[in-house]
Design brief:
Blueprint (H helix, E strand, L loop, with lengths): L5 E4 L4 E4 L7 H14 L3 H20 L4 E4 L5 E4 L3
Antiparallel strand pairs: 1-2, 3-4
Helix pairs in contact: 1-2
Length: 81
């Protein structure tokens, strides 16, 4: 019987599924650098990015805006496609 690609993450207590994605080299390197800087895994960086994308998408679809405050307290709106 083949081994399943699904398992429960003991730390998070959630079902996880192993998957494969094709990414441009520059994107993969950026993800690896983020993981290294944050002292976490590549999977965690990707998961966090998807959760953030979902959150932003849901809010902007309802008319919300994404604003970033600069060090000088100025606000810049991010335009999400």
């Amino acid at each position: 019987m083949p081994e399943s690609d699904e398992h429960t993450d003991a730390r998070a207590g959630v079902l996880v599924v192993k998957t494969t994605v094709a990414l441009p080299t520059a994107v993969l390197e950026a993800l690896r650098q983020l993981a290294k800087t944050r002292n976490t895994t590549l999977a965690k960086v990707i998961s966090d990015a998807i959760e953030l994308e979902q959150y932003v998408h849901e809010r902007t679809q309802k008319g919300g805006r994404v604003l970033v405050e600069g060090p000088d307290k100025s606000l810049t709106q991010l335009w999400i496609r």
